[in-house]
Amino acid sequence: MIGAVFRGPGHLEVGEVETPEIGPDEVLVKVGANTVCGTDVRILRGEKTRGIGWDVVLGHEVAGHVAEVGRNVRGYEVGAPVVLAPALACHHCFYCKRGMENVCLNKRIVGNLLDGGLAEYVRIPADAVAAGNLSVARKDLPPEQLALAEPLACCINGLTHYRVEPDDVVLVMGAGPIGLFHLQLALLAGARAVIVSNRSEARRAFASELGAHVTVDPTSEDLAEVVAEHTEGLGVDAAVICAGRPQLVNDALRVTRKGGRINVFAGLAGEGWAEIEANLVHYNELVLTGASDSRRRDYDTALRLIESGSVAAERMITHRFPLADAEKAIETSAGGEGVKVAVMP
Questions:
Q1: What are 228-249's pLDDT values in tens digits?
Q2: Given this model, what pLDDT does residue 49 score?
Q3: Distance from C-alpha of 199 to C-alpha of 215, rounded to nearest angstrom
Q4: Which of 49, 163, 235, 317 is the least crowded, having the fewest Cβ atoms under 10 Å away?
Q5: How many CB atoms lie within 10 A of CB 209?
Q6: Which residue range(s) make up the domain with 97?
Q7: Do β-strands 2-8 and 340-344 pair in parallel, antiparallel, or remain unpaired?
């Protein structure tokens, strides 16, 4: 089969690799689509090295159809549409026992340490099958739409931290794929208004089409003034940072009302340092949280939202590439063209 193998920073080798053979407790999936994530970009650039293996097929936003089922496996039929929650938790560590499998101490991720979805087939390990990481879709939607369950699940995990309540005003900082998912989730949660800040005119326009009440160009407009105008001077109830620029943390603190909630969802550039005005947290009683990865229950929720049409999955996919052009697909995603890029073997 053909696979896109990470050989080290700056080197993605697309060519013949061995088709996986499955054991009695495993499942083989024929990949229908693997959507590109910013993490794939960072891996290829050498910016993300922790938990990353060389000589591994990249890709963790995977959907396809069951191609083969191990003799001991139940609940999966050949031909069934499936999606994969790629983070494999141990289910035994301190965090797993407390419902925080997304930060499992022994987590392995398909596409990082295990061969992923930028290939014609992907093997689903026995522990992933047993834990229910492979979900059967109720609707056989286009695989590139189902593959979006992974990034959407991560956003749902983030939402549990910054907690949108009915009548809230929410600020989404960044209108990349992640920011656009947070916009849609905030609206589904009952936000009265969602303000989206982004430099790109095209991305702001797309955010408006998806329901953003206000969009802001932070390079030419004063974000604080816009927020004050739409919140009676109080500030937003919740803000989620969806772009990796450290200065956005302070920007969010300054435009969030007393008692409000800020979530650092995006990984920050460089070493991730952000010098913050901590007195704002102190005197305004702000709640500052982070969000990392997702849990299987977030993934199930994401899949149902896509199947029901509650999020605009079909509109999020703007580019499609064959597997032979996997590196071009990653470059397209890195360049900010379109929204989500799908690789379709």
A1: 999 999 999 999 999 999 999 9
A2: 83
A3: 10
A4: 49
A5: 11
A6: 2-147+312-344
A7: unpaired
Question: In this structure, is residue 302 part of a structural domain?
Answer: no
Same domain, 190 and 263: yes
User: Domain with 197 in it: what CATH number?
Assistant: 3.40.50.720
Q: Which tens digits make up the pLDDT trace of 4-29?
A: 999 999 999 999 999 999 999 999 99
Our count of domains for the chain comes to 2
* pTM beyond 0.90: yes
CB under 8 A, 24+ apart: contacts of 42-45: 43/6, 43/112, 44/6, 44/9, 44/10, 44/12, 44/327, 44/330, 45/9, 45/10, 45/334
Q: What is the pLDDT of residue 51?
A: 84
Which pLDDT score is estimated for 337? 79
- The answer to whether the Cα torsion of 243, 246, 251, 254 is positive or negative is positive
Same domain, 319 and 278: no
Mark 28-38 as b/e (b = at least 16 C-beta within 10 Å).
Answer: bbbbbbbbbbb
CA atoms within 13 A on the CB side of 289: 16
Q: What burial class does residue 255 get, using C-beta atoms within 10 Å of its C-beta: 0-12 exposed, 13-18 middle, 19+ buried?
A: buried
pLDDT of residue 338: 82
Please check whether residues 177 and 233 belong to one and the same domain.
yes
